[in-house]
Amino acid sequence: MSKVKKIVKNIRVDADKCNGCRGCEIACSAFHAEPKYSSVNPARSRIRVLTNRLKDIWLPVFAGEYTPTECAGRDIYTIDGKEYEECAFCRAACPSRDMFKEPDSGLPLRCDMCEGEDEPLCVKWCLTNVLVYEEREVWVEEETEEMKQEELHVGLESLADKYGRDKLMDAVARMNAKD
Amino acid sequence: MRYAEIGYYLEIDLATGNIEKVESDPELTELYLGGLGTSVKQHWDRVPPEVKPFDDENLLIFSTGLLNGTPAFSANRTVVSFVSPQSELLAYPMMGGFWSAELKHAGYDKVIFSNKSPDWVYIWINNDKVEIRDARHFKGKGSLEVQDLIREELNEPNAQVAAIGLAGENRCFTASIEQSRSSSSRLGGGAIMGDKKIKAVAVRGSKDVHLARGAEFMELMEEVKKYINFRNSNPIPGVMTILSGIGSPQEMLHTDEKWHTEGFAWGNARKRRKNFWTEEIEKAWTGTQNTAIKRFISCYNCPQQCGALIDYPGVPRYMMKCFSKLTYGMAAYVDNLEFGFKIVQRAQEYGVDAFSTPQILAFAVELKDAGILTDKDFEGCPPDEDKEGRFVWLLDRLVNREGIGDILADGTYWAAKRIGNGAEEFAHNNIKKHEQLPIKLGMLDPLYYLMYATNEKISITQIEGNWPQAPFPKREQREQFVKEWPQVPDERFKEWLLEWEPRGEKSIPHYPPPPMASEIVDWMEMIHNIDDALGLCAGMASFCLKPPYHINNLPQLVSAATGMDVDRDELKRKVNRSRNLHRAFNNCRGMTRADEKPPEDHWRHRFPELEEELLSTYYAFKGWNHDGIPTRERLHELDLDYVADELEKRGILKDVQG
Question: What domains appear along chain B, each with residue ranges and CATH number?
Answer without folding.
Answer: 8-204 (3.60.9.10), 247-427 (1.10.569.10), 441-649 (1.10.599)
